[in-house]
Write a structure and sequence with these properties.
The complex is a heterodimer of chains A (about 110) and B (about 110).
Chain A (H helix, E strand, L loop, with lengths): L2 E4 L3 E5 L4 E3 L1 E4 L4 E8 L5 E7 L5 E3 L5 E5 L4 E6 L8 E9 L5 E3 L3 E6 L1
Parallel strand pairs in A: 2-12
Antiparallel strand pairs in A: 1-4, 3-9, 5-6, 5-10, 7-8, 8-9, 10-11, 10-12
Chain B lengths: L3 E4 L2 E4 L5 E7 L5 E7 L5 E9 L2 E4 L6 E3 L9 E3 L8 E8 L9 E2 L3 E5 L1
Parallel strand pairs in B: 2-11
Antiparallel strand pairs in B: 1-3, 3-8, 4-5, 4-9, 5-6, 7-8, 9-10, 9-11
The chains are: A mainly beta (about 110), B mainly beta (about 110).
Chain lengths: ~110, ~110
């Protein structure tokens, strides 16, 4: 069975600072990996995804993530955050050969000026 | 292109009442999911379906039922509502393979049981 651990429940940063949101997963089979963002009182929208190929994945709003198979990690990064990046971020893993789509507990990113 | 549509957006139920949360998608996806989201707990899978006529339990199915009579629709039924079912409910759909295998989400239904 797969599982996802988001290592930080809350990450406060100042505007224009870099940020990293950490995600580790466990799975005995090949997986797809996703990062979603949820703004207040809204649904989840896809930031980026890793399906195969290049381990560095670029997404919307200047975010990127790196798939590290040996460390089973998929950390999300942004070199300079904006106030508007304040939101909850979810890491998710899907079994390539099955139905499961498992989410982490989320990381709340708070950007202040 | 509507994507995934959930209704209603908000609902208050009294203990013991029942209701159906509606979910429909227009992307012809085979897989559909129902999650509940509670503060600090992420999204927990209630039920999922891999196609019309096929459903299966997720992590927290107690107190809920689903059906999948068509590819488009995946309603979630709450029988005998309890305060523990106060939550935000999200429906999602996806295709398991291909370049767009990510899940697409509805806007959620905020349910309060009093």
């Amino acid at each position: 069975a797969q599982s996802v651990t988001q290592l930080d429940s809350q990450v406060p940063v100042f505007e224009e600072a870099p940020v990293e949101l950490r995600c580790n997963y466990s799975s005995s089979v090949s997986v797809y990996l996703f990062w979603y963002v949820q703004y207040p009182n809204q649904g989840l929208q896809l930031l980026l995804k890793y399906l195969s190929g290049s381990t560095l994945v670029k997404g919307i709003n200047g975010f990127e993530a790196e798939f590290n198979k040996s460390q089973t990690s998929f950390h999300l990064r942004k070199p300079s955050v904006h106030i508007s990046d304040t939101a909850e971020y979810f890491c998710a893993v899907a079994n390539q050969a099955g139905t499961a789509l498992i989410f982490g507990k989320g990381t709340t990113l708070s950007v202040s000026s | 292109n509507a994507g995934v549509t959930q209704t209603p957006k908000f609902r208050i139920l009294k203990i013991g009442q029942s209701m159906t949360l509606q979910c429909t998608q227009d992307m012809n996806h085979n897989y559909m999911y129902w999650y509940r989201q509670d503060p600090g707990m992420g999204l927990k899978l209630i039920y999922y379906s891999v196609g019309a006529g096929i459903t299966d339990k997720g992590e927290v199915p107690n107190g809920y039922n689903v059906s999948r009579s068509t590819t488009e629709d995946f309603p979630l039924r709450l029988e005998l509502a309890a305060p523990s079912q106060t939550s935000v409910y999200f429906c999602a759909s996806r295709e398991p393979q291909g370049a767009r295998t990510e899940a697409f989400f509805g806007q959620g239904t905020r349910l309060t049981v009093v």
